[in-house]
Each structure stands twice: as C-alpha cells, then as structure tokens.
Amino acid sequence: MTPENRFEFYTQMLTEYFDCVITPIEGFHKEINDAMIYSLTAGGKRIRPMLCLEFCRALGGDVGAAMPFAAALEMIHTSSLIHDDLPCMDDDDLRRGKPTNHKVFGEAMAVLAGDALILKAFEYMTRSAEKIPAEHVVKAVRVLAEAVGSEGMVGGQVIDLKSEGIKIPIEKLDKLHKMKTGAMIKASVQLGCIAAGVTEGPLYDAATEYSGHIGLGFQIKDDILDVEGNTEKLGKAVGRDEKSNKSTYVTFYGVNGAKKKLVEVTNKAKTSLKDIPDNDFLMYLTDFLLNRDH
Ligand code: GRG
After folding, report:
1. pTM for this one?
2. pLDDT confidence of 61, banded at 50, 70, 90?
3. How many CA atoms, within 13 angstroms, populate the side-chain half-sphere of residue 252?
4. What are the domain boundaries of the chain?
5. Which ligand 1 atom is at minimum distance from the Cα of 90?
6. How far, in Å, is the centroid of ligand 1 from the Cα of 79?
7. CATH number, domain 3-291
8. Average model confidence (pLDDT) for the chain?
9. Whole-angstrom Cα distance, residue 72 to residue 49?
10. Contacts of 218 (CB under 8 A, 6+ apart)
C-alpha cells in the first residue's frame, strides 16, 4: 500500500468507527449525545489516532485491536478542542470548518459534551481488553490519564492561560507546549506501541523520542499557520495569537526562524525512526506534518 493510500485507508477506517462510537438516541438526554457526535464527527486530521494505529502496525500488532485506543485519543483531543473554544478559554466561533460546539448547543451543553467525551474515552480504553492483555490496557490507561491531566495537557493549558499578554522565556514556552500539545502526541505513539505489546525497551524508547520531536514540530507548525495559514483551509480563525498578544515560536524565532527550527526537529524525528521496522508511512506522516496547510 502506498503511504497516500494508507493515509486514506486509516482516515476512512476512523471515520466509519467514529460513526459507530456514539450513535444518535432519542429521549430526555438526546442533546448531550448530539453535541458529542457533532464535534467527534466534524472532521479533523485524525493525526493522533493515526499515529497510534501505525505504531501498532509497524511493531507487528493488530490494528483492529488498537482501534479503541485510537478512538479514545480522538475523543479526548476533541473534548479539549470543545473546552478550548469556550468563552472562558479562547472564545472561538469556528472549529473544523463548523460553528464551535457551544455556538450550536450552548455553553453548558458544550462543557458537558467535553466531560462526557473524556469519560467515553476511558470506557473505550477498557473495551480494548477484549483483544489486548489487561495489564497492557492498565498501562495504556495510566499513560493516557497522565498525558491529559494536570501534569500534561490540562497543566499546559493552565500555563498558556497564565501567560497571555506577557513575554515568556523559551524554556517556559517549550514546557507549556510539551504539556499542552506534546503530551497527547506522545501518548498517541505510546498507546500504539502498547497495543502491539511493546510496553518498554529500545523500540518503545525510540518511539517516545520520535513523539517528542513531532510534538514540538506540531506546535511550531501550528504557530506558523496562525500567521500564514488561511481560515478556509484551517477551518478555524487565524491571527488569534497576535490578537491575544501570545508568546509563540513565531514571536520568539520569527517566521523564518520558526520554519528552520521545524525542519530541524523534523529531521531529528526521522532519525529517531531509524530502528522502527517498516517505517515508510511514519516517514511520510512526518513530512505531512512538516508541510501541512491545515
Ligand atoms: C477537556 C481534558 C480536557 C482538557 C481541556 C482546553 C484544554 C484543557 C486544553 C487545550 C488543549 C489544546 C486545544 C491544545 C492545542 C493542541 C492543538 C495544536 C490542536 C490542534 O490539533 P489538530 O491540528 O486539530 O490536530 P484537528 O482539528 O486536525 O484534529
């Protein structure tokens, strides 16, 4: 399968799976289901679940068995986008090319949809125990919970909120994004390894090292796109960082400096893949992250 075909194959597979993860219901609590489905099926690049599936496959695991992990990652990521867009956070109107969750369902329902998606994610993690040994599922649950919580994404969001309007040193910017963006990308890669039965050792370490580089690269690209991207392609507002006077990799290095840094970390990421077997698609995905326009 060519890398392009594999990208399409995973996208299709994930879309079909997400259509079945939460299905429409009738009844008094129909609205929460609708709000969850609205954001989970709104599109997005599906990078986190794709990394999980591909690391599982490359390390000899069963991609089908990894699907509940992949779904859990996308559910948590989606919940973070719903909460991030709320008026008390970034106050955004557009996400994935559609009105944000709270614009459609109201603030209270958007908070609850985000909450429910987090719990649904952990429900799905335990579902994987049908095909993955229970002790590996337990490790994966811990990896994911640590990545999401106050030592991970939530903690990174706190640093971000507290840093608005002030110039922060590069060490703090790196720490912020390692937690806010990088932790979930690291968990995506590690969950793929765990699904394949690789829970520690040189391959697990190489995959983790890779995830650190692409996590940083992902955020650098995000900052560049906020300056150079366009709303139609990105499906969200651009120029937000400048408007809210945020410290970013672009304010720190300048656009050209940020691009140079992105190429550097991309090369480091590719080097970390050298011992990962059958790594063609991972190489392709790494370049996709470098060159993406959305
Ligand atoms: C709900 C557990 C939970 C936490 C909420 C709001 C918040 C705490 C954290 C914010 C996390 C956040 C929005 C990080 C930014 C990560 C990022 C670069 C998102 C864009 O990811 P893409 O480009 O988006 O993969 P698509 O739409 O393609 O999936």
Report:
1. 0.97
2. very high
3. 19
4. 3-291
5. 6
6. 8
7. 1.10.600.10
8. 96
9. 8
10. 47, 181, 182, 185, 289
